[in-house]
């Protein structure tokens, strides 16, 4: 089972991350810091909180995720945040990858996040999101398991 190969998302814990965000409206790359808090699964649902802080901005983006219907290679998830409200998506699991996508045509939003496991246990993060007005956000970074605190 692929789930057992990933401590990210499927096991409780805290993860930290950093990287760059590129916005289609700007040539500038913005640095971000990320924190994940993954709770013990209850009744088949994994609850996660993802906080993203872009360097130079005071507001922290908070995504609340619920992961459910997990089987060896797929899962479903719900995400809620102040920017898009509540949306549902589909996830995939493989030996080296955990990822998900959202497609909400009614609000003109779509995107994906991929977490590729590296040999040292960290994950390379890639993502892209687009809204109906063709505003695109690209994410490139890494995450690692928090070892203390």
CATH architecture annotation name? Beta Barrel
DSSP strand content: over 45%
Q: Helicity, in percent?
A: under 10%
N- to C-terminal separation?
30 Å
Helix-strand pattern: EEEEEEEEEE
> Segments where pLDDT lies below 50 for 5+ residues?
none
Overall SS class: mainly beta
Instruction: Report mean pLDDT, rounded to a whole number.
Output: 90
By CATH, the superfamily comes out as Calycin beta-barrel core domain
Query: How many structural domains?
Result: 1
**Looking at CATH, which topology would you report?**
Lipocalin
Largest sheet: spatial strand order: 1-2-3-4-5-6-7-8-9-10
Task: Give the overall shape, derived from the CA principal axes.
Answer: globular
Q: What is the count of helical runs? A: 0
Multimerization state: single chain
Task: Outline the structure in words.
- The structure is a single chain.
- The chain is built from no helices and 10 strands.
- A 10-stranded antiparallel beta barrel has the order 1-2-3-4-5-6-7-8-9-10.
- The protein is globular.
- It has one domain (2-143): Calycin beta-barrel core domain (Lipocalin), CATH 2.40.128.
- The protein is mainly β and 149 residues long.
